[in-house]
Write a structure and sequence with these properties.
The complex is a heterodimer of chains A (174) and B (318). Chain A has 174 residues and is an alpha+beta fold. In chain A, 13% of the residues lie in helices and 32% in strands. Classes of the chains: A alpha+beta (174), B alpha/beta (318). The complex binds FE2/S2 (inorganic) cluster. Chain A: InterPro entries: MoCF_Sase_C, MOSC_domain, Pyrv_Knase-like_insert_dom_sf.
Chain lengths: 174, 318
Amino acid sequence: MLDTTIGAGSAQGATQLGWTGVVRFLHFTPRAFLPMRAAEAIALVAGRGIEGDRYMIGNEEGFYSHKPEEGRQVTLFELETLVALKRDAGIELGPEEHRRNVTVEGVPLNHLVGRRFWLGETLLEATRLSVPCRHIEEITGKAIFDPLINRSGLNCRILQGGIVRVGDTVRNAA
Amino acid sequence: MTARPITTVKTIVTGIEEAGAGTKLFTLADPDQWELPPFKPGAHIDLHLPNGLVRTYSLCNEPADNARYVIAVKREAEGRGGSRALHDDVRVGEVIGVSLPRGGLEAGADIARCVFVAGGIGVTPFLSMALHLARTKQADFKLHLIVREEVPLAAQLGPLIKEGRVVVHRTSRTGRPDLAALVGEGGSATMVACCGPEGMIDDFERVTAAWPAANVHIERFIAAAPVLDPDAQPFTLSLSRTGTEIQVRAGQTMLAALQEGGIDIATSCCGGICGACKVGWLEGKPVHRDRILSPYERERYLMACVAGSDADRLVLDL
Ligand code: FES
């Protein structure tokens, strides 16, 4: 699936003013441990999270960690990491397995901490880098902790809510 | 924030059925019918029962049936209490936390034939396997079920018995079957597995002693002990601010012991890289194992998710 997705109309050509990326996959799950479900669109609620997702603030059931974080309302992951994982570590990880909500292509996630950017019609603020966790190894049964160090995605706060769809553009708001 | 970290999958009991021979089938599902974490045929889960007991049961539904976990529980009046609690106290609608599924059997691509030998309620892991193989047609299989008289899960096994895939041996009528004859000749394309009372498993082990080890599987009722680091030692944590003492079992993480003791420790990676669980230490000899603290910091702090202790006692600044 990755091979056919990569480069299929990705956001090249708009690089003069920094970067422009695209939403490739959307996933959510209502509770810890449950498999993530793919969606064509998800609804982001400002200051709270994704409708139906475990990290929605106020939904007491969903936190693996016992400290619900305001800065973790939605999480992003780079499609490029999945490709690198397969190439460098021989591990095939599906976009539903990394357990972040939005898989993007062409977005330098690690450089966005502290910055704002548009995800489709929603405005996000990047709060911190995600860290790999042993919990994901337990769920997937794949040894991905080490390969994901420093490229485990981005946690964000939702400043302006709305609907995000697969194929939406991701662009810098600064 | 008083919430505890979530360590189990939340399920509710959606069905309880009588299944013969003092056995009940319990169906567990997500409260919203969301898919459950996947499992291999014959895998097992720990149930965290409402009375605090934790008990392990084999899943007996087909893995492709991913919205349910079905377990079969025989009421053991003289048992350790788990089956009694399930039979007598648990009702439809009850919330039960379960672990992620573990274990299970996977017939590799080179396996053409499977022979399963089950004693009584030991049939449960093989029911899931049989349903899986019947659906995928991945390998030919035969399940020998050895019972005194009554067949447990008769309704579930009925179609497979009719097809000749499951053969029932009633010891009250025909005596004990010859296990060597049941499993037949060993070979690299044959996988055999057994689950039942200890005596039957011992016989089975004898009969298959010369087989390739990878092709022989044994499921014991008592869950196998977790694989422990052979060098791991238990130690005591002493919390300097409250005087509380907490035991860390061999192979247990310091973090798990602290959380079990009701101590609120933040976590994120559980692998020694994020720093969320950083704790100060005052006396003792920590074994650090994290990947972020500098030598200087290690003189004062440790990461509770990965650190161990080189001495019997470690004093934490908690
Ligand atoms: S939880 Fe991340 S270092 Fe312990």
